[in-house]
Write a structure and sequence with these properties.
The chain is elongated. The strands form 6 sheets. Strands 1, 2, 3, 4 and 7 form a 5-stranded mixed β-sheet that branches. A 5-stranded antiparallel β-sheet has the order 9-8-16-15-14, sandwiched between helices. It has a two-stranded antiparallel sheet with strand order 5-6. 36% of the residues lie in helices and 19% in strands. Helix 10 packs across helix 16. It is an alpha+beta fold and 594 residues long.
Length: 594
């Protein structure tokens, strides 16, 4: 800092020369310095007062605005802050391919008690037992009057139940907000959705976690906030699923079956349009698993994915298709069908005597076991095994539901010659109906393997492995069309929709060894429309019996096929397939193409 002297030499010398008093100069400079210091201090004080005034003004403005906000808002009780990790309750919706809701969230409340706060525990126990008949009043009274400080009473309440509890008026009965999983369509697509329950629970929130199906498979994705509430879009079509389940339930009752399943799959994309398994359940109130009994007796058992069965003569299509693809036979090649066919200590018979020879086409149309066994003998066990493996019969399906890995096919320990023969017509090897639907979809897709998916695909997947030539696949579909038109599956001939398929009736294995004499697994598998396959379909009935005739009939032609035909008749229009009609030769006549 530069200081100005009070007695500057130049002015002092000048004053002395003029005869003036030099002390006057010092007094003048001292006065000016004091005035300057006073002005600076005044400005500093004024600035501080201004800043302090602004701070007070801002503080009073904030306090006033907050008081105004509180005065205008609804009154509410204060919520105490709780330490620890928060429970994330938000869960994304699940929708079908058209955006219709399959699973969503519903705001509800839980009921808990804090006995130390209760005024009249005896009355509260009696009233709660009246509102909730499943609760025991004596047990509640013991809990309320004991040493417990906290207990859950109900995890979920309806609005009516909540109001009834509120009317009790006891301060020790408290409500906690909850977000529960709601399935608005009830049992529809229950085995696909699976269900959800509560994981970690707190007084003010609960974690919703998947327990089965896609809810469990995509649990992490559904709970991920990074998805921004975007729903999980499935390949299912809700309208088709409803029609399939309705027809399947009626067919199951009509055919006196123990269980039933149906699958419809897009042959180009692998999308599962419908997957039904009966008996089913309501995921809103998922039942407990059966203990100590056959899992297939439980409604939780997904027969389409978890159930592995010998699927019978539906496998004959693969045997004939492979032989056509290898060039070993043509549709008109004659096959020796004289029987019975002896192979060591085993005997292979046909359902009826078809004569000494059949063409390859007739072997499949008439479903000859002997003819199929002779065809596979040309192929050989090694190539047969490789072909079935390429179709996906040696591993669980890739369907994105939690139960899919458990549906592992049951394979023989050694692929011997007798296994080769029996596997050619669907015995000695067990797989799920979904395996079969995917394999028939591969045939309908021109021989390119299709991987099933429960997620919607906007474009067909690329890079599918070719299992058989397009020419062989087309020939096989045309032969299966004749099977429906003139063979064992004539009841599946739906007017306007050219259905191609194959029946399969397999004796049901006895857990004690061997096979039952009067219990079968009846299956129909096919594609439609045959001239340009768009969808594959599989319908399987467990232990069906058709009793309209004089004798009980259990074969697939009498049981599974009519059910499959009705499913196609109901769902084909929903799938956007128009019936094909052709002008007849007579005037005014219209002929529906079969």
């Amino acid at each position: 800092m530069i200081r100005t002297p009070l007695r500057p030499l130049a002015r002092i010398l000048s004053a002395r020369a003029k005869g003036e008093n030099p002390d006057a100069i010092e007094r003048e400079n001292l006065r000016l310095r004091h005035e300057e210091m006073r002005d600076r201090q005044r400005l500093r004080a004024e600035g501080r007062l201004l800043i302090l005034g602004l701070l007070f003004f801002g503080a009073f403005t904030v306090v006033g605005a907050r008081m105004g906000t509180l005065a205008a808002s609804e009154p509410m009780e204060p919520v105490a802050a709780a330490s620890g990790a928060s429970i994330l309750a938000q869960r994304a919706d699940i929708v079908d391919r058209k955006g219709r809701v399959l699973a969503t969230n519903l705001a509800t409340h839980s009921l808990y008690a804090q006995p130390p706060l209760m005024v009249d525990p005896d009355r509260a126990a009696l009233e709660l037992a009246r509102i909730f008949p499943d609760l025991d009043a004596d047990r509640l009274r013991a809990d309320f009057t004991g040493s417990r400080k906290f207990l859950w009473i109900k995890r979920r309440l309806s609005p009516e139940q909540m109001q009834a509890v509120h009317d009790i008026g006891d301060p020790g009965l408290l409500f906690g907000p909850r977000e529960m999983r709601l399935y608005p369509n009830g049992t529809l697509a229950a085995h696909v959705l699976g269900g959800a329950g509560f994981g970690r629970e707190g007084v003010t929130s609960a974690e919703v976690v998947g327990t089965a199906g896609v809810e469990k498979q995509f649990d992490t994705w559904l709970r991920d906030p990074a998805n921004g509430g975007r729903p999980l879009e499935l390949s299912l079509d809700l309208s088709v699923q409803a029609a399939v389940e309705a027809v399947l339930a009626g067919g199951m009752r009509l055919m006196n079956a123990k269980g039933a399943t149906a699958v419809i799959m897009d042959v180009r994309t692998g999308e599962v349009i419908s997957l039904a398994s009966l008996p089913d359940f309501d995921p809103n109130a998922r039942p407990a698993p059966l203990a100590g009994r056959d899992p297939s007796d439980s409604p939780l058992f997904n027969r389409a994915v978890q159930g592995v069965y010998e699927l019978g003569s539906t496998f004959k299509a693969f045997t004939v298709g492979q032989a056509l693809d290898l060039g070993l036979v043509s549709p008109e090649t004659l096959i020796d069908t004289r029987g019975p066919l002896k192979w060591g200590r085993f005997t292979i018979r046909d359902f009826r005597n078809y004569g000494p020879q059949l063409t390859v086409r007739e072997v499949l149309v008439k479903s000859s076991n002997i003819g199929t066994a002779r065809i596979v003998a040309m192929t050989g066990a090694e190539r047969q095994q490789a072909f079935l493996k390429a179709l996906g019969f040696f591993e669980p399906t890739s369907l994105e539901i939690a139960e899919a890995p458990t549906g592992r096919p049951l394979l023989p320990r050694k692929w011997s010659e007798i296994v080769m023969l029996t596997a050619s017509y669907g015995h000695g090897l067990s797989a799920s109906p979904l395996h079969l639907a995917a394999a028939y979809a591969t045939i309908g897709n021109g021989g390119v393997r299709v991987m099933p998916t429960i997620l919607r695909r906007t474009v067909p997947p690329e890079g599918g492995a070719r299992v058989m030539s397009a020419e062989a696949a087309a020939t096989l579909v045309s032969i299966m069309r004749e099977t429906v038109a003139h063979g064992t599956a004539t009841f599946a001939d739906v007017p306007g929709y050219a259905v191609a398929g194959k029946t399969g009736t397999a004796d049901k294995p006895d857990p004690r060894g061997g096979y039952y004499d009067d219990r079968v697994i009846a299956t129909f598998a096919g594609v439609f429309p045959a001239h340009d396959p768009a969808y594959s379909i599989v319908v399987t009935l467990d232990e069906p019996v058709e009793t309209s005739g004089t004798e009980p009939r259990r074969t697939a032609g009498w049981t599974a096929v009519p059910v499959a035909a009705e499913i196609i008749r109901r769902t084909a229009p929903l799938l956007g397939l128009r019936p094909e009609v052709e002008q007849g030769t007579g005037a005014g006549l219209i002929r529906v193409r079969n």
